[in-house]
Amino acid sequence: xxxxxxxxxxxLDIDTGSDLMWIQCDAPCTSCAKGAHPLYKPRNVxxxxxxxxxxxxxxxxxxxxxCDNCHQCDYEIEYADRSSSVGVLAKDELQLVLxxxxxxxxxxxxxxxxxxxxxxxxxxxxxxxxxxxSRAPISLPSQLASHGLINNVIGHCLRxxxxxxxxxxxxxxxxxxxxSWVSMLNNPFPNLYQAQLMKMNYGGKELRLGSTSYxxxxxxxxxxxxxxxxxxxxxxxxxxxxxxxxxxxxxKDASDTTLPxxxxxxxxxxxxxxxxxxxxxxxxxxxxxxxxVSTKLWIPAEGxxxxxxxxxxxxxxxxxxxxHDGSAIILGDISLRGQLFVYDNVNQKIGWIRSNCERPxxxxxxxxx
Length: 369
What we know:
The active site is at 15, 222. Residues 1-353 form the Peptidase A1 domain. The protein has helices at 53-58, 120-123, 140-146, 232-242; strands at 2-3, 8-9, 12-15, 22-24, 74-78, 84-97, 103-117, 129-132, 153-158, 165-169, 180-183, 194-202, 205-207, 217-221, 228-230, 250-252, 262-265, 282-286, 295-299, 305-307, 313-315, 317-319, 328-331, 339-344, 349-354. By secondary structure, it is mainly beta.
């Protein structure tokens, strides 16, 4: 993103699971990692006052609320992995490139972050902050939609083979046909992108979702989470099914602490392709108990396995008992690759289609039959 006047570049992690866009900031900085670019330097004119509606929003869950003698708006965010960011709200110009290639500027509110804690500090070596893309009013797409610049639609496509891909805001690059669509749920997490899960299979075997009504569960789409999290019952069922893959070719390696479960092959693994025959795909079936036709999301082995520095293959699905309230399945970055995902806040739906994620294209209307 290019922020300020003159505009300066900042690399941000795209996070559909959080609200606020923030940049590491010389305010001065208490605990900042050495990011990709010099720290953002705010001026007094950039500071958001406590009475601002966006300030009321970010302080909604804070213990310390509005104070009369404060001249700035403090915020604090805690993420699912218990890392955190503290800062103040600021307002500055953001440079944007429109679908037709022209450039425009808009003043947006974002976090000026001066104190980061936890594992977040490790990820900030190559980035400067986080781009919150949730449904909250303060998220960047919600702000741009309130300016009338875009429809409140977000699309991201993360490549399977590299860290490439693309992100767009607005509906100019949403395919008009062949996408799978499911209804967006408003509960239990009002600001997150979630859908109702009917059932989930590993290969041909069903994974029980846990204590949810009518045997149905909730899936949260969270690009900011590195890994995928299952409910306690679904995780235990998956681990039990994975016991059968142990063979001479693939053996559990307890000495590899990269993730809770890693396997050692007869050779250092360089690509998931080399070991995918030992694993089955995940199938998530969406819908509601009233719908006859369900919508499926197919996640291949590449969508839940990762390679460690030791050359082992590790399971990128973790026990989510302590994430949010433990009742949802959270699809993280690892499981969202190789597909274009679209979050349509206007029509309250979530869609996906397989893609090589090389570049967004204006897709023509479907042909007439």
